[in-house]
Structure formats: structure tokens, C-alpha cells
Amino acid sequence: MIGFLAVCALTVGYSLIAKRMASTFVTAPMVFLGVGALMSIGGFIPAAASQPLLLVVAEVALVVLLFLDAAKTDIMELRNRHVWPLRMLVFGLPLSILLGTLAGAVLLPTWSIMAVALAAAILAPTDAALGQAVVTNPAVPVRSRRALIVESGLNDGLALPAILFLAAVLAAETQQNAGWIIFGAKQILLGPIAGGVIGWLGGWAFMRAKAHGTTSDVFEGIGALALAGTAYLGAVQIGGNGFIASFAAGLAFGGVVKGACKFVYEFTESEGQLLSWAAFFLLGAVLVPDAIGELSWPVFVLILTSLLVVRPVAIWLSLLGTDSAPITRLFFGWFGPRGLATALFALLVAEEIPHALAQQILNLAINAVWISAVLHGVTAVPTARRYGAKIAALAPCAEMHNENVHVKESET
User: Fold this and answer.
1) Which of the 8 DSSP states describes residue 399?
2) Which of 159, 174, 197, 378 keeps 20 to 30 A from 241, CA to CA?
3) Angle 86-151-245 (CA atoms, 0-180°, nearest 5)?
């Protein structure tokens, strides 16, 4: 109850100054993580009592946000028009996991290679919410903002199968039971099938209802949320993974409605923010204090390596051969904040792998989130302004700010 009260009160307070805060280096995730941690350390919120609430909020937030982020994406348009995010997803994401595994193997030699790979996969997804000052900054060209939004919206769902598979392999190795691998394979295979079918049927039904005037925007919103829940629960019933199903349902749904459901966009900007802020607050209250206490130098160096080396190199390599300027590749490489997906995926696999390892990976993920929140929050506004000015100098034409026109970023 105290946790709910604190979240509501903090949300009211922050919403009153949110516009002013958007122009500073202090972001909403920083505020909610920090206040949650301080209240926990001060004894105002008992961490043990808040943990069940965290698990509920985390699962609901993950299901809804996976579905809505995917639903905003038109796969055909992504393939034909959005070359940069497509490259970052298809090549940059696997490269991030590979390079992260290599870095982890060096810095955490006592961990098994599978454990290191799992940690690298959990650290790979990005969260545009932590870089809100970038993706909403008019100084940054629209095409660049769109690329970061699309990438961060999809890379969490694309990383999830790898995370679940690695967790299943770790569980099988520890328990000497191949059944875990079969269980993991079923979850990865059946989840997308169930989600895809439910999402497509839901999208078809929505379009038919709109064509016949039997629904409205308000009821479409209720139906979209219920569809995400249907995909999750339907997949669980047949042995698939509900989170993968939610993501697949969103992709199928978005492919059918093609932007016709306004709720998908509006919810993310309003009620979705409340879900996200509540999750950050509870992460701060329940997990951040213990994670900071367990932060070792090798883990700290690995987190910095992931932020400063692994992602920048992976993104740079993935964009070679495109019309992106070097400054854009550097900019995209830096602005890959680790956020909710990283924390929630660590929570998700914690129950499937040995407790000691689960705690280490969870602490790694939580420390990565708060460190990323601070570093990306502090650098977001000045770096976005500098990048925007640099691009304007390289290609000083208004078309750079038109998302419908892809202007080559020239270096001359």
C-alpha cells in the first residue's frame, strides 16, 4: 500500500514539472529510481514487502510495452524505408551480444561462457525512455530520432528468445536435465505462433469493426490492451512464452491495422508512462540498494565497457555501407540506454537459473540500469544539441528534418 501511495504521489508531483524537467539533465527514470532507492534506504518502504508488487507491475509493464512497441511498427515499411534501424536490429543486436560475451569472458573469468552470454543478451536491449531528451529534441533530425525509437521499440522483443534459450541451457547444465532445453524450445517456438495468430485475428477484427462503425477510439484502446493479455495468457496455456507472444501479437496486429489504431500511440505517451515510472520506482525501492552494495570493480568495468565500447562498435559496424555519416554512427552508438527491458528480463530469468548466479546477473542488470540512467540523462541534452548542429552544418537543408525524405548525410 505504501508503495502504491508513494508512486501516485511522486507521479503527481513530477507531472507538474515534467515539461521543465525535459530541458534538464534530470530524467524521469533518474527521479523515480533515485526516490525509490532513497525511500527504501530510509526505511519508508520495506523492500521485502514491495517485491510482490514489483513482480506484478514488471510483468504487466513488459507485456503491454512489448505489444505496443511492436504494434507501432510496420514491418514492410521498416524493410523498405527505415534502413538504419533495420541494420541496427539485424546486425547490431547480435554483434552487441557477441562482443558483450567476449568482454564478459575477460572481465568475469569465474563465470561460465553461457552465464556471460546470458548477461550480454540481457544488457543488449535499449530503452528510448531514458533518452527522451534525445528522441523528442527538435534539434535532432527526424530520421535519426525515428531510427532510435524504432530500434529501441523492437530490440527488446528480438533479444528475448536468445535470453530465454540461454537461461534454459544454463538450467539444463546445472540440473543435468535436458528437459529444460526442450521446455525452452517450446516456449520460444510456440510463443510467436500463438501471438502471431492472436494478433492477426485481433487486427482483422479491429479493422472490420472500424469499417462497420461498431467501435470507437476509446473502446479500441480497451480492446488492444485485452488483446495483449489474450496473447500472453493464450501462449502460456499451450506451453509458449507469454512475453514473446505479446511481442509477436503486436507485430501481427500492427501489420494489419497499419497505424489505424490511434490508441497504440497515445497510450505509450500517457498511461504507458505511468506504468514505466511505477516500474522504475519499484526497481529503485526493491533492487537498487542491494545491487549497489554488491557492485564490484569487474562488474562496473563490464557495464562501462557495454555502454562505451560494445554497443558503439556494434552499431558502427552495422551501419557501414549505409548513408549514415560517422557522427550519426557515433551518436547512435552512445544513445542506447539500458532501461526497463534489461531489468525486467533479468527478473524474468532469475527463477529459471541457479539462485547464486541469478542474483549476480540481477545485480549486474540493475546496476547497469541506474548507471545508464545517470550517464545518458546527463549527456542527453548537450549531446543532442551538438549532434543536431553538426548535422545541420554537414547537410543544411530542411529535408533532413522531414521523416518522409531520406537525405544522404554527406561529410562534405
Assistant:
1) G
2) 174
3) 95
- Can you give the pLDDT at residue 177? 57
Average pLDDT for the chain? 85
Asked whether 70 and 153 are in contact (CB, 8 A), the reply is: yes
Task: Give the span between the Cα atoms of 85 and 406, in whole angstroms.
Answer: 13
Q: How many helices (H) and strands (E) does the chain have?
A: 20, 0
Identify the DSSP state of 176.
T
- Which domains does the chain carry? 2-15+26-131+143-396 (1.20.1530.10)
Taking alpha carbons only, the member of 345, 372, 389 closest to residue 120 is 345
Best CA proximity match to 191, nearest among 34, 31, 348:
348
Q: Would you say 28 and 18 are in contact if contact means Cβ atoms under 8 Å apart?
A: yes
Q: Is the dihedral of CA 267, 269, 153, 254 positive or negative?
A: positive
| DSSP conformation letters of 59-100 | HHHHHHHHHHHHHT--HHHHHHH-HHHHHIIIIIHHHHHHHH
* CA pair distance 96, 125, nearest whole angstrom: 9
pLDDT given for residue 402 in this prediction: 43
CA distance 371 to 363: 12
d(CA 288, CA 304): 17
